[in-house]
């Protein structure tokens, strides 16, 4: 899958790789091609636009790491943004609730709902779960029988068919049967339609109200590209989805649906259907898929290693400054950047009292990335002199910094106070024999 996008991006970076330095114009040229590649892969236009903007913002002006080429670095940035777009980590099924955990599958007719219901039931059964499947599809002739056949094939129980019942009635019956017979998981295969209509949505909402599903998974056919994305956006507006399953990924060379889906629904892609057979389903791995799209795993790990060694150098340089009791706004800024990168404390920040507080605040959700970015903007609005000597910041200068960073003087004061606390902690540290002495004490 994804061959064409991968080829296309490969060509873009090939051209970049030959160059010595990478300026804004180079990044913009490369990104124009990335954008075309994404659109050709059938990624939704707004999604492609956002993606390119984000990557451009990150790439332009970024210092190129020593020991990698600018092109390699751009590959890494594009890769990380792809992973981000696809949803970072593999998303698990959330079924740790009082049994029976209900998993409801929704989607259009022919998207692969019934097949996927059986595939998931088989997976869960292998996991030691006691699973029951029920088809609520009273529209398509023989849909319920189809699921019964799949049940026999996979040796998974199915709810006995009672003719003439409505989906809501079947759902009620399935719930009580699953409860009475001690099933861990109840899978509900809902009725599809040829296209999204209100009757379908109302029916799904009614079933959802009764069954209170732990998972409501939208099944979409990845081969339908943009249509899949439209369907997903329609569904996600009406039913509280918890995830998406992309079927027919075995035939999807373009991958646009996968790339847009997460952005459009805001929900993780949990599984990928890879064929008609009942064991052809895989958890969706964003990193693996991003790697496959780029086809440049070696470059990505090269840049990762380079970044690690440079972080180590930075940490050493910082340790030198700290040992002398120095801690200016530039140091604070690089620590904030590290916090942002790592989603937690920077290499040395753990030893700085003020930073520990900041981390606790971050962990509790009181400080999020936006606040870190705001602090960064404030430091960015200071002059070189002010950064080295923050005590220069008088009332007038504070107003200028606040204006320049879109913040308030109050915000600037808070930042200065934080810096001051950290700086005096540094001085105390120095009296205790510096960081080295403290490290020695810690063993
Ligand atoms: P439903 O109407 O949504 O319940 O769709 P079905 O489960 O009946 O699937 C429709 C067709 O798609 C069947 O022929 C399936 O075998 C096929 N199908 C489902 N998932 C996949 C998949 O991941 N890959 C491929 N190649 N075919 C699939």
UniProtKB/TrEMBL annotation:
PROSITE patterns: SRP54. It comes from the Bacteria. It is a peripheral membrane protein. Signal peptide: none annotated. It catalyses: GTP + H2O = GDP + phosphate + H(+). GTP binds at residues 107-114, 189-193, 247-250. Belongs to the GTP-binding SRP family. SRP54 subfamily. This is Signal recognition particle protein. The gene is ffh.
């Amino acid at each position: 899958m994804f061959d064409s996008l991968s080829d296309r991006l490969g060509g873009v970076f090939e051209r970049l790789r030959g160059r010595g330095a990478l300026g804004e114009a180079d990044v913009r040229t490369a990104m124009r091609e990335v954008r075309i590649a994404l659109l050709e892969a059938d990624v939704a236009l707004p999604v492609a636009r956002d993606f390119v903007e984000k990557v451009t913002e990150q790439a332009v002006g970024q210092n190129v790491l020593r020991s990698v080429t600018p092109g390699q670095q751009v590959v890494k940035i594009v890769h990380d943004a792809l992973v981000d777009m696809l949803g970072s980590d593999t998303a698990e099924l959330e079924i740790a609730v009082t049994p029976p955990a209900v998993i409801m599958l929704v989607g259009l007719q022919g998207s692969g709902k019934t097949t996927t219901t059986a595939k998931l039931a088989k997976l869960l059964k292998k996991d030691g779960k006691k699973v029951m499947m029920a088809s609520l599809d009273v529209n398509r002739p023989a849909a319920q029988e189809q699921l019964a056949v799949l049940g026999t094939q996979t040796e998974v129980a199915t709810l006995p068919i009672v003719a003439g019942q409505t989906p809501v009635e079947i759902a009620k019956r399935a719930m009580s049967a699953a409860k009475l017979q001690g099933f861990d998981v109840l899978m509900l295969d809902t009725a599809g339609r040829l296209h999204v209509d209100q009757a379908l949505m109302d029916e799904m909402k009614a079933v959802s109200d009764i069954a209170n599903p732990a998972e409501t998974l939208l099944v979409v056919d990845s081969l339908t590209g943009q249509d899949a994305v439209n369907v997903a956006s329609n569904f996600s507006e009406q039913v509280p989805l918890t995830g998406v399953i992309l079927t027919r990924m075995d035939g999807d060379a373009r991958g646009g649906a996968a790339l847009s889906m997460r952005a459009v629904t805001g929900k993780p892609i949990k599984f990928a259907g890879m064929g008609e057979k009942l064991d052809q389903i895989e958890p969706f791995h964003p990193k693996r898929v991003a790697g496959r799209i780029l086809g440049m795993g070696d470059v990505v790990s090269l840049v990762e290693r380079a970044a690690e060694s440079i972080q180590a150098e930075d940490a050493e340089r910082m340790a030198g400054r700290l040992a002398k009791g120095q801690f200016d706004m530039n140091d604070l800024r690089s620590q904030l950047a590290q916090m942002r990168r790592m989603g937690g404390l920077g290499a040395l920040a753990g030893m700085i009292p003020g930073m520990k507080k900041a981390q606790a605040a971050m962990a509790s959700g009181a400080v999020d990335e936006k606040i870190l970015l705001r602090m960064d903007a404030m430091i960015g609005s200071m002059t070189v002199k002010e950064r080295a000597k923050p005590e220069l910041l008088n009332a007038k200068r504070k107003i200028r910094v606040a204006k320049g960073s879109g913040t308030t003087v109050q915000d600037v004061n808070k930042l200065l106070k934080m810096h001051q606390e950290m700086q005096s902690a540094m001085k105390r540290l120095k009296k205790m024999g510096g960081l080295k002495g403290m490290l020695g004490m810690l063993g």
